[in-house]
From TrEMBL:
Task performed by this protein: Catalyzes the methylthiolation of N6-(dimethylallyl)adenosine (i(6)A), leading to the formation of 2-methylthio-N6-(dimethylallyl)adenosine (ms(2)i(6)A) at position 37 in tRNAs that read codons beginning with uridine.
Domain Radical SAM core: 197-427
PROSITE patterns to which the protein is assigned, alphabetical: MTTASE_N (PS51449), MTTASE_RADICAL (PS01278), RADICAL_SAM (PS51918)
Record protein name field: tRNA-2-methylthio-N(6)-dimethylallyladenosine synthase
Subcellular location: Cytoplasm
Organism: Occultella glacieicola
Amino acid sequence: MFRWRRSRGNSADTIGSSSRATRPRRTRNWPGRTAVESTIVTAELTHPRTYVVRTLGCQMNVHDSERMSGLLEDAGYVSAETAGTGSLMAQADGADVVVINTCAVRENASDRLYGNLGQLASLKRDRPGLQIAVGGCLAQQDRAGIVARAPWVDVVFGTHNLDVLPALLERARHNDEAQVEIEESLKVFPSTLPTRRESAYAAWVSISVGCNNTCTFCIVPHLRGKERDRRPGDVLAEVGAVVAEGALEVTLLGQNVNSYGVGFGDRGAFAKLLRACGRIEGLERVRFTSPHPAAFTDDVIDAMADTPNIMPSLHMPLQSGSDAILRAMRRSYRSERFLGILERVRDRMPEAAITTDIIVGFPGETEADFRATLDVVEASRFASAFTFQYSQRPGTPAADLPDQVPADVVAERYGRLQALQERISAEENAAQVGRTVEVLLAESEGRKDVATRRLSGRAADNRLVHVGVPDGVANLPEDARPRPGDLVTAVVTDSAPHHLLADSGLAGGRFEVRRTRSGDAWAARRRAAATAASNTTGEPATSASRAVGLGMPTVRRA
């Protein structure tokens, strides 16, 4: 399907022998493609090229996708978001470029990618000018294998070189050949790149990339490299910039946020960073994810409790409640330490909602090990939990461990864990009834909001809240109603395992709206998007709908 071409200046013929991958040249003769269709149209386009970025995976991938969008918009592309916001095909149908940002953590990651690529193949047969790019962790792992399996893909790039995406797209168009470029280590810190943020009112800010841990189930260190910390001044400058653009909430991101500072010799740097965020005017909510129990120290708990804009929510990955399994996972803490952290957090912040990650069926897990996990879950009283059935990931030490647990046993245990956590979540949410909550309204938290005439968003503790809207507010002109980014104060009237209802306003009770500059920013972005959609002159979208610039240098590659 394609043949190898030696890259200039590269003495290696195969992927992986140097930091810069060779690029496969191929004939575009996949099924249904004709020679005429393979011709590159070089005429000037009447309209700017449009793009869509599809994200698979974690918050770090969401943040990386914002960088990819920013890079494309900086290069003159325009978002095709108005063409469709549902399925990939609906979005891709209005785009000239489709970027899939992949995850490699779970077993079905590969199936999801190639399922998406299979859908796009038929679209590309009808629209040969469509370009498809694959980035992220699975791209870093599979490399040129993606093009071998899906030869209609135009660009493959890794986790360490997001900045090359626009150049690779143009090179692929010019040369009519797939461009595969994978770096073995980080060359450009993603946070220095332009960004088009998904939200006008909430922002992700990366404080570090990579991971120094050696958990036996995890492929992330192999794909994202060793931990690299940003300097505190750079982090705070970005936080200040997004707040100036209208953001009311910031989430600090890192594979292990609480180990931040080790890279520049300050083990107390994360607690100091949290306190510094408390001094940023206009920043009302600060969250972070994800910490590691082994490195979680009391100075961080104190900083959370003492800093008013640090939210009383904490995601603390447990993974297993069995000390034997934790040891096999190379998780350098034990269940007693984990429970001690939760106790100290709740002592300082009784209102804190704590969530977690749990893996069921790790190799060697016995019924006694699993019961130990159930015991820790019962004692922890998590508000919610992300639960996973263990899957073998090639390249991880756990994949080769003996005593792999049979799939039917894993599924049965998984069902028991889910039932337990469902009960606990229901009980913990029921205890919130009668509380007054301030909800940061969101754009797409509730699928039934229109039918129920509710608004949805997150309380300070990050619980999902659906808020009933009184007639007097619902009947206001559209521009006077509460907007995403505004804050609504109401009383919780009912609960379910995964959400709260705050319908106090429907009975004449408390319902207060605070219009914010974040709501203003959301409205401005919406107006700009509408203007861009109705623009038939071929002019680019207005700056208000373009990438959020942070005043940081943009690194380009030819």
